[in-house]
Each structure stands twice: as structure tokens, then as C-alpha cells.
Amino acid sequence: MNNYLVDHRIYTIRLRKMPEFLDVFNRLAMPVLLETLGQPLGFYTSFVGPQNQFIHLWRYDDLADFERRSQLRDAHPDFPAYLAASETLILSQETRLIRSAALLSPALGR
Q: How much is the pLDDT for 100?
């Protein structure tokens, strides 16, 4: 079983501001995040259910790895530019640290 953690982050974006947010995120956040957090597991936008949500997932070995890389991100000299550019576009943020459940599933090849 994999015991790694996943940072499951959900941003709710202001109505009709998703294209602007995605542009700001791509230009200002992504270079910093790739340098400090590494490769993401994925990026998503809501389709059914709550609307105007942007979700991203990042894998960490453990809580210490999450804390170390988060500190690198927060201390990066270019990160404040993203925070300033996105603050009027984001209504709320939810952050969860999740891990895989120990379930047996034929579909997963276990």
C-alpha cells in the first residue's frame, strides 16, 4: 500500500473569472510550484456539482515532506506576485491532506 499524502486543494473562483484565474495561475504560480513542489498529480475544474472550482493535487512522501516543500513555496521570491494577482479572483480555499485507503479491489490489480 502506498502511504504517501496528497494535498487536495480546492479554490472557489469568482463568477466569470475562471479564465483570468487560470491565466494568472499558469503565468505566476506554476513556475514557482514546479520549482518548489515538483510535478503535480493533476489539475481539474468542476463540471457537475459546485461550480467555479479549481482543484489541484500534489503528492508528498509524508507530512515532513509537505511542510518542507510548502515552506520553500511560501519563501520563494516570486510567490507574492501570484498571491497579489489572485487575491481578488479567489473566493475561498480548502486544503486537505489525504492518503490512499487500504481496500482490496480487482479493478486496481490487487
A: 81
Tell me 88's DSSP state. T
R_g (Cα) of the chain, nearest Å: 15
Cβ 82 vs Cβ 13: under 8 Å: no
Alpha helices for 30-107 (secondary structure H): 30-36, 63-75, 79-86
> Cell match 496528497: residue?
6
Q: Which H, E and C letters describe 5-29, residue by residue?
A: EEEEEEEEECCCCHHHHHHHHHHHH
19-59 pLDDT, tens digit each:
999 999 999 999 999 999 999 999 999 999 999 999 999 99
- CA–CA dist 90, 21 (Å, integer): 8
Q: Is the pLDDT of residue 107 over 80?
A: no
